[in-house]
Write a structure and sequence with these properties.
The structure is a homodimer.
Chain A: H1 2-19, E1 44-45, E2 48-49, H2 50-58, H3 73-81, H4 83-100, E3 111-115, H5 125-129, H6 140-147, H7 156-167, E4 171-179, H8 183-192, E5 200-204, H9 214-227, E6 231-237, H10 240-243, E7 251-254
Parallel strand pairs in A: 3-4, 3-6, 4-5, 6-7
Antiparallel strand pairs in A: 1-2
Family (chains A, B): Belongs to the APS1/VSP family.
GO molecular function, one term (chains A, B): acid phosphatase activity
Organism (chains A, B): Acacia crassicarpa
Chain lengths: 263, 263
């Protein structure tokens, strides 16, 4: 079992290195230094297996949860590191492309695709691998310090879709819960990860959206985009709050994330 | 591998027999007679594994698909027969109960919970196990002949939730795509499976809903229920068309079904 995990880890490291073809330097955090997450067994919490918990989370049956159940730390850690997480992401991004290439698009420059950032275009896995894979209560100070390093690795299956969308003439809008004060580091991180162009990068203004949920913030920003004349063709996020609500997009896509939940 | 599958099959047969505690006779179709579905390997279709395909289907990323990819017949067949399918169903139904028992309910007799029937309260697995687990194109003649036998087995995790809801004083409404001509056999089948009481059993009137999707039919019937004064607390289905649209319910729950898709 340990051997298998080691192989998987090396594999992840290889994938990360390969995907980051354009960068000069290696991300310091790959391969992951693990405090946990090395076991693959499907533990059980009160009669529910962790794999069934994960499915119920992805399908939005289990909602508004605050942390990954402690029993599932190793299971979730393992899932995030083996090829399965990437395969699950690939299935979603591939479906998005199979669909969008069949959609007749007016050639008026108004077609956009919205991407969330964390766990959608960039991975916070190096941070979460040091923090219990979502088992620990969210610590905004620690997390912001990680974000401000600007070294979040690319999620390569999303980057593939991004490039294909650009080739189809669809413009990219990043819509993130990161705050406006993190604009520079986000721009830098996106470019380092291989996202070199976009129509808009929308970060959260904490004053404008004080006390609002992510769902409210993102919906309001999408409505603004439509009022500006944009046509939201597709919308990809790792959270249901990215893809529910008004002006969600002609089709929405949820990439996997069993580590945290944002309302 | 064959031995493992055999053990799994015996397990399914045992579960079915145990769950159907109140019936005098065994369902003729358990244990399943298999034409396929005995292999557990996670095959690949065009770079996507069948387990990633199944996740994308459950999350509603892959939509409007007509049949299970042929490459995935064995994978899906295996999934449906091992405890995992039941565990996934349990996680959803348990979450529904954990939530609903915290909801303050006016004691006015107007609280209802909507259940779909096929793959939600009763299982068509004996039929699908003989028909490629969703790989074959849907054949309404053959399927109706199966429904009219009236022997679809219980889905035991849903029955547990059903009984708990009744104990909480919530009334049950079954809302199904089965047609009104199948009323008698449906009543008989529900009772044989352990569902002994309900407020309403709504079957589809093919004249009223000619040319309408399941989503339109079910939404329209739910709106009628609310106009009649009912309060839809929860709504459980195996299809997204059961739980999207107006008057969906205060919370919705999707139980797994990787065998077919209904718009």
């Amino acid at each position: 079992m340990m051997m298998k995990t080691l192989v998987a880890l090396l594999l992840v490291a290889t994938i990360a290195a390969t995907a980051h073809a354009s960068g000069e330097e290696e991300y310091e955090i790959f391969p992951l230094q693990l405090n946990s997450g090395a076991a693959s067994e499907d533990a059980t919490l009160q009669g529910i297996t962790c794999s069934s918990w994960r499915l119920a989370v992805e399908v939005h049956n289990i909602i508004e949860w605050s942390t990954v159940p402690a029993e599932c730390e190793n299971y979730i850690g393992h899932y995030m590191q083996i090829p399965k997480y990437r395969q699950d992401s690939k299935a979603v991004n591939r479906e998005a492309y199979l669909w969008v290439r069949t959609v007749p698009l007016p050639r008026d420059g108004r077609n956009i695709w919205i991407f969330d950032i964390g766990e959608t275009t960039l991975s916070n896995l190096p941070y979460y691998s040091q923090n219990g894979f979502g088992v620990h209560k969210f610590n905004s100070t620690l997390f912001d310090a990680w974000v401000e390093k600007g070294v979040a690795p690319v999620l390569p299956e999303t980057l593939k879709l991004y490039n294909k969308l650009l080739n189809l003439g669809i413009k990219i809008v990043f819509l993130t819960g990161r705050t406006v004060s993190q604009t520079d580091v986000t721009v830098e991180n996106l470019k380092r990860a291989g996202y070199h162009t976009w129509e808009k990068l929308i970060l959260k203004d904490p004053k404008e959206y004080s006390g609002k949920t992510a769902l409210e913030y993102k919906s309001a920003e999408r409505v603004k985009l439509e009022k500006q004349g944009y046509r939201i063709i597709g919308n990809t996020g790792d959270q249901w709050s990215d893809i529910l609500g008004p002006a969600a997009g002609r089709r929405t896509f949820k990439v996997p994330n069993p580590m945290y939940y944002i309302s």
